[in-house]
Amino acid sequence: MATPYRIHITPTNTGLWNIRQSEEAAQTVSETLQKDLEMPHHLLALYGTGASVADIQKAYDLRRPLQRPVVPQHQDAVENLITHWDRASKYLGKEEYYPDFLAYFQRAIDREGYESVVKTHLLKGDGSANDLFLQQPAIVAQALAQTCVHNIEGLDQLLLDGERLANPNPDPADMPSLLSMYEKVRTDPQLTGSVRMEDKSKIEDGIVQRAKDAMLAIFEQVHVEPDKPDERTAEMFHGMILVASSAAIHPPPHHVKYDFFLMHHVNSSLIYSTLNSQPWLSTADKVRLLEWKIRLDLVQYAARGCPPVSLEGIASYVPKQPSEESVREIGMRFYEFGDDGHAIKQARATAICHELIAIGLEGYLWPRLAEAIF
Asked: Which of 109, 128, 186, 230 is deepest in the core (most CB within 10 A)?
């Protein structure tokens, strides 16, 4: 049984590809994650797409030497978090307190269940939640702890203000299409000129300092209709794949190069289909989570230089070695790719978007997108 302290993956718990894994693979991924919980994104992506025991073990062995050593707990900090969570702000954004937040969330989840802890600490809407997702409580605890010690890069000035600006209208007009909002970002001279090569943080030094008002004016239009979270999730997922692929695919002699930041926004998109199916999340929770993802996609698009979105550019891509494989089969080539999991995650996300919520793209283009990733 999975607990806040123990990883236990079963052969049927494989995620959105909805495959059945072997008992041996389930045991291997459970044991490797129990040894080192810092690689769940890579190992679970391999496991959830059908990788073998050997593939999973090889990925673990390849990346294990690169993982950070365990940081010791500060017992006084753990006790402070448990007894005075309202004072947690002094530990936020500081990596050395990760094990302390982890211990706090493990105990809270053990006591209340991960659903209650997520709703209280992430979705409550108060100051504490604003400072801050499988059915594996230990991974939920890890995710929440990592969130607590992560640098926010000035995003609070954009995301919190953007939400406040979007909320006052009790009867807002329908949200514009997301591709039209990307185009608004791309054609706004203040936003397109806000990011410079010398900026250490393209968001904090660029957008926040030089184009905050212009970004907030677009954020103000982000309001997901309560009866359309599934529809808008599909649009967000599909749009992000178009954005990232348009930025990556260019005519010869240029090679396909996916932007590392936009890749993460594609890979994180698939969880929103899972969130929408959770009965313990209210419609308002699902809407709010999606709105924050959309705003973050838009700000990252601006931070990456506003590359034009071009369906024609994607359609013109010719794979070096065209094949008749399905999108899933192309994705399986990444089992032995040798990176730290980003490629298999993007292949998985592309296949899931194609199978579950594909809209607007001709069917023949999806294998082409998968080939481009490879």
From this structure: 109
